[in-house]
């Protein structure tokens, strides 16, 4: 049992068939302090081992009814509904871009990171497993099925604005004023980016063609020709999807 934060054991309550404390009574008659100390350590180690293995997943059979009831009670929270991904209206400044990233609508993200517009966040979400966070990172919610199976409808996606290096073959968030994306019902897309370039004699290059390729073969790519390339912008590079916590 536990009293004032201290775990107190009682070896006399152990089963007479328990081999782990065999010889306890004999040792008790010779050295009471050592007998109680050894028994205390054996009992605590037994439960420590049991609970540690339980964390990894195992079947447990309990002869002791109170222990069985206690362990069953610990499992009850696992059967409760799992909360959905939480969107916090506001968080402390100390955890912004450390543990939490801002959630934007796609329109707001494009306006803020490309045009420098003042926009409001839709909230803040906790992010884990995406490496070190920084102020160039943000979250948008995907819409539609064009990027399945990589990105599902409704997924919360983490992006990094102003990515360095080539974007060839990477999934990006884009804005393209002269082309319509049916998923987003407008000029925004989350797609795989590829491009063909042409070079002049001086070595300067320009886009000959930009292709925004969906993962889902039921969707057609968006092809942006050279004359419209100036109306195309990459807003952010896809980092990953936040694990979805759905209700059971």
From TrEMBL:
InterPro entries: LexA-like (IPR039418), LexA/Signal_pep-like_sf (IPR036286), Peptidase_S24_S26A/B/C (IPR015927), SLFN_3-like_DNA/RNA_helicase (IPR018647)
UniProt-listed SUPFAM superfamilies: LexA/Signal peptidase
Cited Gene3D superfamilies: Umud Fragment, subunit A
Peptidase S24/S26A/S26B/S26C domain sequence ranges: 107-238
Protein known as: DUF2075 domain-containing protein
Residues of the signal peptide: none
Pfam families named among the record's database cross-references: Peptidase_S24, SLFN-g3_helicase
Stretches assigned to the Schlafen group 3-like DNA/RNA helicase domain: 6-64
Lineage: superkingdom: Bacteria
């Amino acid at each position: 049992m536990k009293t004032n934060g201290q775990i107190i054991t009682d070896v006399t309550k152990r089963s007479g068939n328990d081999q782990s404390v065999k010889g306890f009574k004999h040792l008790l008659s010779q050295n009471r302090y050592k007998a109680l100390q050894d028994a205390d350590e054996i009992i605590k180690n037994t439960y420590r081992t049991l609970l540690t293995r339980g964390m990894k997943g195992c079947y447990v059979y309990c002869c002791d009814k109170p222990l069985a009831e206690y362990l069953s009670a610990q499992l009850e929270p696992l059967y409760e509904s799992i909360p959905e991904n939480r969107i916090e209206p506001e968080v402390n400044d100390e955890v912004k871009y450390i543990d939490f990233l801002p959630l934007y609508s796609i329109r707001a993200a494009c306006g803020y990171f490309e045009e420098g517009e003042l926009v409001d966040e839709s909230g803040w979400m906790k992010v884990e497993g995406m490496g070190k966070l920084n102020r160039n990172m943000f979250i948008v919610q995907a819409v539609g099925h064009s990027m399945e199976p990589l990105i599902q409808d409704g997924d919360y996606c983490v992006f990094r604005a102003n990515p360095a290096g080539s974007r060839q073959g990477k999934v990006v968030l884009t804005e393209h004023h002269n082309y319509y994306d049916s998923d987003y019902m407008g000029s925004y897309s989350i797609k795989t980016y590829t491009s063909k370039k042409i070079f002049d004699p001086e070595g300067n290059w320009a886009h000959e063609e930009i292709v925004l390729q969906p993962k889902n073969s039921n969707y057609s790519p968006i092809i942006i020709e050279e004359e419209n390339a100036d109306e195309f912008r990459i807003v952010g590079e896809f980092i990953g999807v936040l694990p979805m916590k759905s209700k059971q």
